[in-house]
TrEMBL record:
Family: Belongs to the zinc-containing alcohol dehydrogenase family.
PANTHER family: ALCOHOL DEHYDROGENASE 1-RELATED, VACUOLAR PROTEIN SORTING-ASSOCIATED PROTEIN 11
PROSITE patterns linked: ADH_ZINC
Enzyme class: oxidoreductase
This protein's name: alcohol dehydrogenase
Entry keyword set: Metal-binding, Oxidoreductase, Zinc
Length: 360
């Protein structure tokens, strides 16, 4: 089968054996795989700094059709269309049994790694899923628009749900970075809260997307954001700040925009640092570093999409066009989420004409 592999030096399309489902396992034919900014973070690190061996197949946002069901599985049949819950835990501990496999304290030591982030991922014709509990039925959702819900949607939903107790109905949420995650976080907030939503992005088209997604205000990313947030909140500041970038500049912006007793949710995996001590962040502040989401968060986020409360803005690519899609993501040119559809023929990728012109 075809697979987009990363070996520590670059991406390449490879022909590798298709997986076969062992006992308790499932193989999916991938119908869509989303590209996340975290993949760029992985590819920017020295290979020896990664907690797993290369090469691997990338892709940690997946939906597909069941084509091979291992022995001992019931309630799943060939032809079922499913989304993949990515943050696999041990499945047995108290945390996993609560559905929060994203916080399993045993997974790393047991060598359990998410698809595309240690195990072979979804940028391929087929994906091996190690246990049927990781699969959630799509129930009518369009695969290409549903794939990003498994990470961009799930992570945003988890971050928003965790912060909701600190966001009163007449409060204010500030979101920094309106990309794949951010544009869904705006919609999720709109669906779950009546709070004022202020979005910040350095790109004008992302600010326009934020407003279309339901933000009340969209601001360029400048040093004046904290003052503007205070002007928009009668001098109080934001109740909750979601930072989908996490550079030194955006974390400073987050701390300076926050009200006393508010919450900073650091979702981005940028290299920035936020010094936390009395008088460095507002009194009573809570700082959270959410990671992906729980199993029930995924069920909820798929339900929000089915209800038409959230819609993923997508750019669709063929498998062969994955490097071009990552290039566009790195340059900040992807609006919403780039999604690879392995069944799509190459030749009509967004931005392809530009890339070809640039290459001469
Ligand atoms: P993306 O590239 O789609 O979006 C990033 C957005 O931030 C873009 O719109 C860009 O214009 C904007 N931006 C960049 N620098 C900015 C600045 N200084 N001020 C304001 N806006 C700025 O990325 P994504 O896939 O949505 O991921 C967002 C972040 O979340 C990444 O760091 C990613 O690695 C991380 N992530 C974390 C988790 C988790 O579990 N915590 C899960 C998925 C992704
Ligand atoms: Zn991701
Ligand atoms: Zn566990």
């Amino acid at each position: 089968m075809r697979a987009v592999r990363y070996d520590g030096t670059g991406l390449y399309l490879s022909d590798i054996p298709a997986p076969v489902a062992g006992p308790g396992q499932v193989v999916l034919e991938v119908t869509a795989a989303g590209l996340c900014h975290s993949d760029l973070a992985v590819m920017s690190r020295p290979p020896e700094a990664l907690p797993y061996k290369l090469p691997i197949t990338l892709g940690h946002e997946a939906v597909g059709v069941v084509v091979d069901v291992g022995a001992g599985i019931s309630g799943l049949a060939e032809g079922d269309t499913v989304a993949v819950y990515g943050p696999h835990g041990c499945g047995a501990c108290r945390t996993c049994r609560s559905g929060a496999e994203n916080h399993c304290p045993h997974a790393r030591a047991a060598g359990i790694l998410p698809p595309g982030l240690g195990a072979d991922g979804a940028l391929a014709d087929y994906l091996l899923v190690p246990h049927s509990r990781h699969l959630v039925p799509l129930r009518g959702l369009d695969p290409v628009r549903a794939a990003p819900l498994t990470d961009a949607g799930l992570t945003s939903y988890h971050a928003v749900r965790s912060a909701l107790p600190r966001l009163p109905p007449d409060g204010t949420a500030l979101l920094i970075g309106i990309g794949g995650l951010g544009h869904l976080a705006v919609q999720i907030l709109r669906a779950l809260s009546s709070a004022q939503i202020i979005a910040v992005d350095m790109a004008a088209d992302k600010r326009e997307l934020a407003l279309r997604c339901g933000a009340d205000t969209a601001l360029p990313s400048t040093d004046t954001v904290p003052d503007q947030v205070r002007d928009l909140t009668e001098g109080v500041g934001a109740d909750v700040v979601f930072d989908f970038v996490a550079s030194d500049a955006t974390l400073r912006m987050a701390a300076r925009s926050l009200r006393p007793g508010g919450e900073i949710s650091i979702v981005g995996v940028g290299e920035g640092r936020l010094p936390v001590a009395v008088n460095l962040v507002p009194l009573g502040a809570v700082v959270r570093t959410p990671y992906w989401g729980t199993q029930s968060d995924l069920v909820d986020v798929l339900a929000l999409a089915r209800e038409g409360r959230i819609t993923v803005e997508v750019e669709e690519y063929a498998l062969e066009e994955t490097p071009l899609a990552y290039e566009r993501l790195a340059r900040g040119n992807v609006r919403g989420r780039a999604v690879v559809n392995p069944a799509r023929a190459p030749g009509n990728a967004p931005g392809q004409a530009c890339a070809e012109e640039q290459r001469g």
